[in-house]
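Quick question about two entries, pasted in order.
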Amino acid sequence: MTLFRDDLNETISHIQVSTIRQFDEEVSAIPDMVKLTLGEPDFNTPEHVKAAAKKAIDDNYSHYTGMAGLLELRQAAAHFQETKYGVHYDAEDQVLVTVGATEAIATALTTICNPGDAIIIPSPIFPAYIPIIQEAHAKPLFMDTGVNDFVITPKMVDDFIAAHPDENFKGIVLNYPNNPTGVTYVEDEIKALADCFHRHNLWVVSDEIYSELTYGSDHVSIAKFIPDEVILINGLSKSHAMTGWRIGFLFASKEMTAQLKKVHQYYVTAATTIAQKAGVEALTNGIDDAQPMRQEYQARRDFVYQTMSKLGFKIARPTGAFYIFAKIPAGFEQDSMAFCKDLARKNQLAIIPGTGFGAEGEGYVRLSYAASMEKLHQAMDRLTAYMQEPANCIN
């Protein structure tokens, strides 16, 4: 018998595995399950990007790159940001290549957090930011965005900070287009938030991984307005259907990038060289690869949004990403975990409980429409059957 020692880092011992992953694994054991659980594009990586990776293998790109990543990839990433969003970064000393946006998040938050600092977390939110803040012995403080259909306003931030006079507010996590709500912002809204964050002297960790997936308006980066106060995160997972390639980016001022690089080098040394060569192709010859995917996602959004709205779900209409975050209708189980487990068991449809995105997500469910239209029709048929079964109504 192996004895487990319990003298580990106390912070780590209190961190839980993501509810999203736990629930996905649990329901995967149910036969004939339709899963709309994970944020995983159903598209394949473009052929020309795969070809670039194959060539990199043949050309023996099997050695370390520098810690910051291949210069040609940093140049491509900087060009992409300037061409698409009008924000300028010097590839030499303002761009880092990371192991996906997840490592970028960890590097950014670890760099700015001191013990006791407070970081504003607009909630509901993708949960990955929270344990990283806790690992740094800082405090995640949750600001409920549900009161305004998940849209942050300067007044909400002002009021939240005023309500916590004893806290040392260091920064705010901004994720838009947002996971799980699909909400994003137009230029006037982002400019107003930038002014607010500047006034409060907050670092802004801006996770813009879904920037290429907006519907109805172009993405506007907050780095356009307060570049020296923003640590900008992006990557290739969503824009180029490259989740498994693990290529992300950090963009920041020269001074901040020098600090980020210290954390990054000890976490990972450098991103995979072959994947970096594929990234060069993605951001140059594939600079517009997201366009056909975006058109298909929008059609899927419209179908799912309309179907669920007719079933009584209240939904803030998503304007980005590929998620629906829906309020469970009155008369049905409002415990989101119980609702989702019952739906999975009875009708073989898996969606994520809202509590997976914080306490503010209770009473909601999230589903990913990064799935084929055929699969989405099947899913909506199963959801309709569940909602129309009188036995599932608790009133």
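Here is the second entry:
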Amino acid sequence: MRKARLLNRTAGPGPRIGWAARVREAGAPLAVRPYRLHFTARVLSWTGSAVSPIALAFAVLHIGGGAGALGLVLAVSVAPQILLLLVGGVVADRLPRARVMVWSNVVCALAEGLAALLLWSGTARVWHLVLMSGICGAASAFFTPAAGGIVKEVVPPEARHAANALLKIAQNLVKVGGPAIGGVLVAASGSAWAIGWDAATFAASALLFARIGLRSGPVKVKTGFLADLRDGWTDFRSRRWLWVMVVQGALVVPVWLVGYQLLGPVYGARFLGGAGLWGLVVSGFTGGLVAGAAVALMWRPRLVGRVVCAGTGSLALPLAAMAATAPVPVLVAATAAAGTGLAVSMTVWSGLVQERIPADRLSRALSYSTLGQLVPVPFGYLLAGPISRAVGIRATLAGGALVIVLAAVVPLLIRQVRALAVAGQPAHESVLAGTAAVSARAPR
């Protein structure tokens, strides 16, 4: 035994993988045709979605609506997701996921295309935009679980981490430049053209999703819809590590959104002198998102539970910095660190869920997970105003930071969460070989 320990100690680490090999491994999923189509379709769709909020806001104002009308349009987009998300999870587990994604995009393309036509003709009313928003929200309830599960189908296990990281990098890059482009497009051409662009990206994405062409076996529906819903809940509840982390998200997501998105601009106006410096803070966060996704692309941590909790805890940094009225450079650094931690944790968490949950249950698990984090958000927005008026904005932000820290630390007291790990990382040759094999099997 003593000799074996000595040999292990003197043997040293395994062969180091060079940066060139890591870069080839990171880009390997793009060699797989179904993933390449999926990636391109998602990027197209995100470019439209980045423009849509600004276009929708100015469209409502242009036709005579006010803040109340805009609030109604935004609320109606969220409500169908809450109501239909579990239904979408069952449907995505029953039917080919690519088909569900195609029809979700087609529905949104038709709804937004009709809204754009009404705006162009000058006949649009607020209720038209409310209806469009509700239809797209309902379609999103079906698209989200399907999109979350399809990566498992289009790339081999060895390449899923890189596949998730590439999607996250692209999404975050669009987030950085999309709103600015949207503002220019609305200013130059009007909100109708911007909403029309979003409709066009939905249509183009639907065409790309339709070409993925995975060879799916026959759909087996042995139980009723409610039975599938119950089975999904039973499976979700049986995975302690999963529901514990969803509870963590249910606490952190509304607190973060209230602290950063709702109270953050108020803090910027009151303590930073206006939108200029607050915009710099927001840029720090979006830059951190891009940096974090790039880090996740090149780094594959094994102990995912600890990394996810650390990334979650990093969201407390900007709230604590605002509560302490830290200098602007410190606040920008805090938001950049939060963005980096969030992007890394989301990427590695996606890979773990895809690895541990069987494909025929994955969309239902994702729908329960998303719903658990989405439902508390409206209550957080409703409580934020009274609480901040009662105790002050800085005290509210300090309390939010404390809640996030506790939510990040407490799950680590559970051994199952601390031990959450992905399977052993393969050498880069295995990743490249695996993606080549999937690409060869995919229909052309």
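Reply: The CA atoms of residues 35 and 266 lie 42 Å apart. Residues 224-425 form a domain with the Growth Hormone; Chain: A; fold (CATH 1.20.1250.20). Hope that helps.
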